[in-house]
Amino acid sequence: MVSELVTALKRSFSEHRNGADAASMTKYVKGKFVFYGLKAPLRRQIAGAVIASWQSAHGQPDMEQGIAQKLLPALYSCQERELHYVGAEVCSGLMRKGLVGHDFLDVVKLGVTTNSWWDTVDIFAASSMSPYLLACGDGSPSTRLLQEMDKWAVSNNLWLRRTAILCQLKLKGQTDLKRLERYISCNASHKDFFVRKAIGWALREYAKHDPKWVKTFLAKYKSELSGLSVREASLHLS
Question: Which domain of life is it from (predicted)?
């Protein structure tokens, strides 16, 4: 059943292929992926129509966890990047609406560690993890999921590390500060740009809620953090 949806998406995307935009998109991601050349608004419009038609034909009024668990790996096995975006955004929508459970983390991990680049990883890490933590914790961040983030923060996979660092990005006053400090301190000397950028982003976002805490944190760890992390964290600090 899911294979029919994948086929329909591929057919519709192919009909709107734009070679010039596809080439520039591939260049933008340093040649890592190929594209149909569909910009985000058109891609979402086409995907929304195709998915709605498929749901109607199969008596599926809403997307649900069981379908997404099959759809993401099916789309991620395709070559074109736009199909990866569809899979990630379908999962993200369910996570943000609180329509998936703890066991969906396996799907998230697949989405983060497969075809990995910031553009799909951050659909999970920056956009979806905070509401997912809250939904699975009945209004407060899920301890069970945070315990998994403890493992991701020290993973050999840099994208899992980035996701752990960013997972509390939108939690504001519900942020587990001990965990945030631990995740950042254990990655402070990491050499990868995307990990360093994530550290700065997480601190900059929390500074909107508690700038004093971030200033104190930076004073404590400034000698360990990269210049990039410090600059990003300090952008809106007076």
Answer: Eukaryota
